[in-house]
Amino acid sequence: MKPSSIRAHRLPSSLLSCILRSHTTVRQLHQQTLPSQIPSPTPFVPDTKTFLSLIGRNLSQHAAKIPTWESLFSLKSMQLRKLGVEPARTRRYLLWWRDKFRKGEYGIGGDLKEVKNSVAHVRIIEVPADRSSRTLAGPHATKKLIVNVPPDVPVNEPKLRALKPVNGLKVQGAHTIVGPFVEPVKGTGGSIATVKVQEGMWEQRRGEKVDGGERRKVQVRRKRKLEELRKAKS
């Protein structure tokens, strides 16, 4: 059958109405879910400048171009390019960290709640061990946790037992907090420390390119092989 002989058919009005309603519903759902894609700031990451500083790779230099939290989590790659965020791998890196933050996947310090002037205090507390540990070590067995509390809260405060342990830190020896970017407080023997926002705390270091990187590896190795063959013949 020739294309010219194919006649267009009108859709029944009932079917057309159903399609239009479905399209409108999908669009409304998209508009309703869009705001949820912008996560709330956290005490450790309260603004755009801090976020860009934490993830490193000199992205903090673009803080003035992305002034609001909403724009940080809504701008697309092409929009970031127009703002001067270059090269493309830097934009991909920013979008990658943006997606991780949406999912609640933070670097060190991201889960800290008690933060003042970009500094959080952490300390070691002892709480009753879980049931399996008490069975092996006795009914009075305890375990040590690292929690985030203001420096003026007494260590025996009952509510400390309900706090979640800080991710990424651990107790070394009897009473020393260790972990990346941890600064022990003088006079505490390492049982109290601070974690302060610093440039590049969450940065994922780029690996060293081998043979020009993934994109050029085949070409570089082929040229090298041809050069070796040429030298072997001469």
Summarize the SSE layout with pairings.
Blueprint: H1 13-33, H2 48-55, H3 69-72, H4 77-82, H5 88-102, E1 115-116, E2 119-128, H6 131-137, E3 142-148, E4 170-172, E5 176-178, E6 182-184, E7 192-196, H7 213-233
Antiparallel strand pairs: 1-2, 2-3, 2-7, 4-5, 6-7
Notes on the protein architecture:
With 234 residues, this protein is an alpha+beta fold. The chain is 35% helix and 14% strand. The chain is built from seven helices and seven strands; from the N terminus they run αααααββαβββββα. It has helices at 13-33, 48-55, 69-72, 77-82, 88-102, 131-137, 213-233; strands at 115-116, 119-128, 142-148, 170-172, 176-178, 182-184, 192-196. The strands form two sheets. Strands 1, 2, 3, 6 and 7 form a five-stranded antiparallel β-sheet that branches. A hairpin with a 7-residue loop joins β6 (182-184) and β7 (192-196). The chain is extended and about 80 Å long. The chain starts with 12 loop residues before the first helix and ends with a helix. The relative contact order is 0.11. The model is unreliable at 1-8 and 29-36 (pLDDT under 50).
